[in-house]
Design goal:
Keywords: Exonuclease, Hydrolase, Nuclease. This is Nuclease SbcCD subunit D. Pfam families: Metallophos. By secondary structure, the protein is of the alpha/beta class. The chain is built from 10 helices and 16 strands. The strands form 3 sheets. Strands 4-3-2-1-11-12 form a 6-stranded mixed β-sheet, covered by helices on one side. Strands 5-6-7-8-10-9 form a 6-stranded mixed β-sheet. Helix 3 links the parallel strand 2 and strand 3. The longest helix is centred in the last third of the chain and has 16 residues. The N and C termini lie far apart (about 75 Å).
Length: about 375
């Protein structure tokens, strides 16, 4: 028996740093990756799909988002089991109980809206642990595992949240206790645990049966999400009493959120940065966060700004990594001697240079004014 394990679709997600039309393209990509699970599942011979929480970004969504999301799920073509998570819990405002969702929900979509056993077919069950609020007061998976028998039925647990061995806040009541999960696996009461909440693919513990699938499309930078963009095809051998499991990770995501740190101290470093940005593929689906450190002349800083401005129009977004950015700008000797201006204008430039070299409150404004002067001069305006 095979099925697809996915999680954290967070349909309706927005990212404030995306350029103009990049946001609707990113939203469409998150729906497209859902629809693409259909051909992948058919190729793998999967019976069904489980989505281990956070199907939607939240419970308050535009009607268009709900309708388009349900249409993407319809396109999968096989049963899709949705688990409410911390972003879309089964509270009083739940999207899953809205009139629109209930009216347009496709026949192949099933909401795991109660804790405990859901029969897929005779001999195969899903054990669900849905969230009913954003702050559970117990280990929801531990609650549904308690008392499950080892009776020869194949059981897939579908849950959401942090596992205690991966979370530093060990006193949180909602943490999933890995020891209880592994005990249920060891006695044969359950055979695979499909988790959501962590957006990177991860094997938890030592059994090879407890996995986070990660989000199928990236949601954060690569220093935070180490391995996003996958779904897992899970194979359980029902003919073997031990129910051995095999995991096949399939990459489906197409976007990248990249963090880069670079030192820039002269025009050669700027040229090297230019080359590196130019060589990056799929710019329209790539977000770059840049951390830059160094010391530059006003001329080189103007060249850096022009470089970044150019690539900010080519990438889905090019943003400054503020806590990793520290560039000192200082006018070099003779840097403004050949501008071809004289008289009062030349004296004003000299004053700006003196201010820029000072530690006064106006130094940053003076450097910005000198950089603008250089850019205007290069363009033949000044």
């Amino acid at each position: 028996m095979r099925f697809v394990h996915s999680a954290d679709w967070q349909l309706g997600m927005t990212r404030h740093f995306l350029n103009g039309e990049a946001q609707p393209r990113y939203s469409a990509a998150r729906r497209d990756v859902v629809a693409a699970i259909g051909p992948l599942a058919a190729d793998a011979g999967a019976e069904f799909v489980v989505v281990a929480g956070d199907v939607f970004e939240d419970n308050q969504l535009a009607p268009q988002v709900v309708s388009q999301s349900l249409e993407a799920m319809r396109a999968i073509g096989i049963p899709v089991y949705l688990l409410p998570g911390n972003h879309d819990p089964l509270d009083a405002s739940s999207v899953y109980t809205s009139a629109l969702f209930l009216a347009e929900c496709p026949d192949n979509v099933v909401v795991l809206d109660r804790a405990g056993i859901h029969e897929v077919r005779p001999g195969l069950e899903i054990v669900a642990a849905p969230w009913r609020s954003k702050r559970p007061t117990t280990d929801l998976i531990g609650d549904v595992l308690d008392g499950l028998p080892a009776d020869g039925v194949t059981r897939i647990v579908v849950g959401h949240g942090a596992v205690d061995i991966l979370d530093p806040g060990h006193d949180k009541p909602s943490l999933i206790r890995l020891a209880a999960v592994e005990a249920a696996l060891a006695r044969g009461a359950v055979h695979y645990v499909a988790l959501g909440d962590k957006h990177s693919r991860a094997d938890v513990g030592a059994t090879g049966r407890v996995w986070y699938s990660g989000s199928p499309e990236v949601t954060n930078y690569d220093d935070v999400e180490l391995d996003p963009g996958h779904v897992l095809v899970v194979e359980v051998d029902e003919a073997d009493p031990a129910r051995p499991v095999r995991i096949d990770a399939r990459r489906v995501g197409r976007w990248r959120f990249v963090s880069l740190n670079r030192s820039v101290d002269d025009n050669r470093d700027i040229a090297d940065l230019d080359i590196n940005l130019d060589l990056m593929p799929d710019k329209e689906r790539t977000v770059v966060r840049l951390g830059l450190t160094g010391s530059l002349t006003v001329t080189d800083k103007a060249a850096l700004d022009a470089c970044l401005d150019r690539y900010s129009r080519r990438f889905a977004a090019l943003t400054e990594w503020e806590r990793n950015t520290d560039i000192a700008v200082m006018p070099a000797d003779g840097e403004f001697a050949d501008l071809g201006i004289g008289g009062f204008a030349a004296a004003a430039v000299d004053d700006l240079v003196a201010t820029a070299r000072s530690d006064g409150d106006d130094a940053e404004d003076a450097r910005a004014a000198l950089a603008l002067l250089l850019r205007l001069t290069d363009r033949g305006v000044a």
